[in-house]
Design a protein that fits this description.
12 strands, alpha+beta, about 20% strand, 10 helices
């Protein structure tokens, strides 16, 4: 299996490739510019030499008159050894110092090579504007220019290779150093376990590109830590809730079996055990209900409901309990919604039961319904001692009791009522929250319109 390149290696290779391309492009441009510069210099040199030759051969009309100027012409040519001249007129060559090769006949500047030597060939008439004028062909040896260009090309390739290698090495070092925060994140992620969820990344010291990722990673660790703490507390609460009834069942059964007893004693023991078992069964059912809600399996029915009628039915059910507790029940307002009748009744029953338990004698429990543009707001509030502000965020936690005097194994209230109510409200697309101030505690349910 081919091993995948690391991110640092990929960045280093990318840096090297970019540097090589840029260097090569710059080298090619410099080479072209140098070549154009040399052509321009040669053109200027040949133009100046052409002016001198025309001045020397001024008035030459025939081969005889040329012979009189030949010595002066050669003296002019000897001043530049790398320059040779060919003069042709009417098919005759008056002078031919050029190599015996076929030369370009078109006027202007040309480049050619012969026997390993490079030349710049320049064709021009002796007397411009006269068709019968002798033709001058100047050949300038430019081999030293070409050697310079070749050496420069070799230097360009060497520079490209060395710069790419140097950039690869420096890029690998820079990438490795720049990716150090990622390695740190990997180390923290590798060290995360159930016993080390408190570690956090120092996002203030990280580059801007990784700061958001580090904050998201820290937030994820915070959520995991919170979820693990809740899970641990939840497991401890389950064990705590089940320990007392199981202990009661074991103790009572062992005691009843220590010796023969009357049938009535067995019957009484079985009735007592049945109560404990029923409470445990209810606890298990509530836990299964919450588990379904956690996995999105709690799907409510969609049926039109008149909340005033539903609340009135529940208030009639709790009327006797309220009368015994000397608490008055009041319903205010009305609203209509769409939802599951059984689930919403269960949620409201939990809230009413909770309100009656914490309302002192002579107090009041009110249920108010308001139908607004955004949906329905249903409030269950009771008078009495308020709930401390630091307790409000935890009211809907499972097995949590606001009363510090914990009732172990109470068969009536296991601390799941508000958690189940919250799951029902969320299944209907709403939300529930609690407020406590000025001697009143309010549980507010907000259901969206059309639910």
């Amino acid at each position: 299996m081919i091993q995948r390149l690391s991110l640092a290696s990929r960045l280093a290779l990318l840096f090297a490739a970019c540097t090589a391309v840029v260097s090569l492009f710059a080298g090619v441009l410099f080479n072209r510019a140098s070549e154009a510069h040399f052509i321009e210099l040669d053109q200027q040199q040949l133009d100046s030499k052409l002016v001198a030759l025309r001045s020397t051969l001024q008035g030459v009309e025939s081969l005889d008159s040329f012979a009189q100027r030949e010595a002066q012409l050669r003296a002019e040519l000897n001043r530049q050894p790398d320059l040779t001249l060919r003069i042709t007129a009417a098919g005759q060559r008056w002078l031919d110092d050029a190599p015996s090769v076929s030369l370009p006949e078109a006027p202007g500047l040309h480049t050619m090579q012969n026997a390993g030597t490079d030349y710049r060939v320049y064709n021009a008439p002796l007397r411009p504007g006269q068709p019968a004028s002798p033709q001058l062909t100047l050949m300038l040896d430019i081999t030293h220019h070409q050697h310079f260009l070749q050496r420069m090309q070799h230097l360009i390739w060497l520079t490209v290779g060395l710069s790419a290698l140097a950039t690869a090495l420096l890029g690998a070092w820079a990438a490795r150093r720049g990716l150090r925060p990622l390695r740190r994140m990997g180390e923290v992620a590798a060290s995360v376990s159930a016993h080390s969820l408190t570690q956090r990344l120092p996002h203030q010291q990280m580059p801007a590109e990784l700061a958001d990722l580090a904050q998201a990673f820290n937030a994820m660790l915070g959520r995991l830590d919170d979820a693990f703490q809740r899970l641990s507390a939840f497991s401890a609460d389950i064990a705590h809730e089940l320990r007392t009834p199981l202990s009661n069942l074991l103790t009572q059964t062992q005691v009843i079996l220590t010796q023969p007893r009357p049938l009535e004693d067995y019957r009484e023991a079985l009735h007592s055990n049945l109560e404990e078992l029923q409470w445990m069964a209810q606890l298990v059912n509530d836990m299964l209900y919450l588990a379904k809600a956690d996995h999105g399996l709690l799907v409510p029915k969609r049926e039109p409901l008149v909340l005033a009628d539903e609340v009135e039915t529940l208030l009639e059910f709790f009327a006797l309990l309220a009368e015994d507790a000397q608490v008055s029940l009041v319903r205010e307002g009305g609203a209509q919604t769409v939802g599951d009748r059984g689930m919403l009744r269960r949620a409201l029953s939990n809230l009413l039961d909770n309100a009656l338990r914490f309302t002192p004698a002579g107090g009041q429990v009110r249920v108010r319904m308001v139908e607004g543009t955004r949906g329905v707001t249903l409030t269950v509030e009771n008078s009495g001692e308020g709930i401390p502000a630091h307790v409000l965020p935890r009211l809907f936690d499972r097995f949590y009791r606001a009363d510090p005097a914990r009732h172990e194994g109470s068969s009536e209230h296991a601390g799941l009522g508000l958690a189940i109510t919250q799951s029902i409200v969320r299944a209907h697309g709403g939300r529930i929250f609690c407020e406590s101030a000025a001697g009143w505690t309010r549980f507010v349910i907000e259901l969206p319109r059309g639910n």
